[in-house]
Write a structure and sequence with these properties.
With 221 residues, this protein is of the alpha/beta class. It is built from 8 helices and 7 strands.
């Protein structure tokens, strides 16, 4: 079975050769260590799926300015880049302070984190732009408009070609977003937990706004 047949059979509770196997990949320094321990030197972040026998996934760009270089293959799943269900526009990414082996960075989602320069581990969240209703209405709610043209590719022809190709052997996946996880990231775990109790009306509005943004964007797609 190819990846698409296996995936569809799983969802339909039909017989299949095996369960789909897909992971999120590996940190670069993890692969470096494995090579030192005997993994073939040719295995990199693009070829780990084949090496470990995973179904895998890949990304390709719908917009003409994309430079990822991914090509369609007969295995795994493909994730189109160019459909944005989250913040649009992003916040500017910038280094706020040089801390030697670490740096204080404002990320594209507005959070400020302290991260290692040479490690891929989860960074330490230092501060957030989202604190209350005022910051929600100023910084975040305007960026969750599902009608923003910034969410969609300029040229849909590649998406149309792939989505209508019923002979393809890979599944096509669109981003589904996150109703709670994004808010947790934007506000911080402790703050969002208190908000559920202190201001449930605002919390409900935030979740509903994110939901409407994701639904509205994917409905158009």
């Amino acid at each position: 079975m190819n990846a698409r047949e296996r995936f569809n059979a799983t969802l339909r509770y039909e017989d299949r050769d095996r369960c789909p196997r897909i992971d999120f990949g590996f940190w670069a320094e993890c692969l470096d260590l494995w090579r030192e321990q005997g993994m073939p030197p040719g295995v990199n972040r693009r070829t780990t799926d084949a090496y470990f026998g995973m179904d895998g996934f890949m990304r390709y760009y719908l917009s003409p300015e994309g430079t990822d270089g991914a090509s369609l293959i007969d295995r795994g799943m493909i994730v189109p880049e160019g459909v944005r269900v989250g913040l649009a526009p992003f916040f500017p990414e910038k280094v706020l302070e040089d801390l030697g082996d670490q740096e204080l960075v404002q990320k594209a989602d507005g959070t400020r984190v302290r991260r290692h320069r040479r490690m891929s581990s989860i960074p330490v969240q230092e501060d957030h732009l989202l604190h209350d209703r005022k910051s929600w209405e100023t910084h975040y709610r305007p960026r969750l408009d599902p009608g923003s043209e910034e969410r969609f590719p300029v040229d849909w022809s590649e998406f149309d070609r792939v989505s209508q190709d019923h002979s393809r052997e890979h599944i096509l996946v669109l981003p589904g977003g996150s109703l709670y996880g994004w808010l947790r990231n934007w506000m911080g775990m402790e703050a969002i937990s208190y908000l559920v109790y202190d201001d449930p009306v605002l919390f409900e509005e935030m979740v509903e706004t994110v939901c409407d943004c994701i639904h509205g964007t994917l409905t158009r797609v």
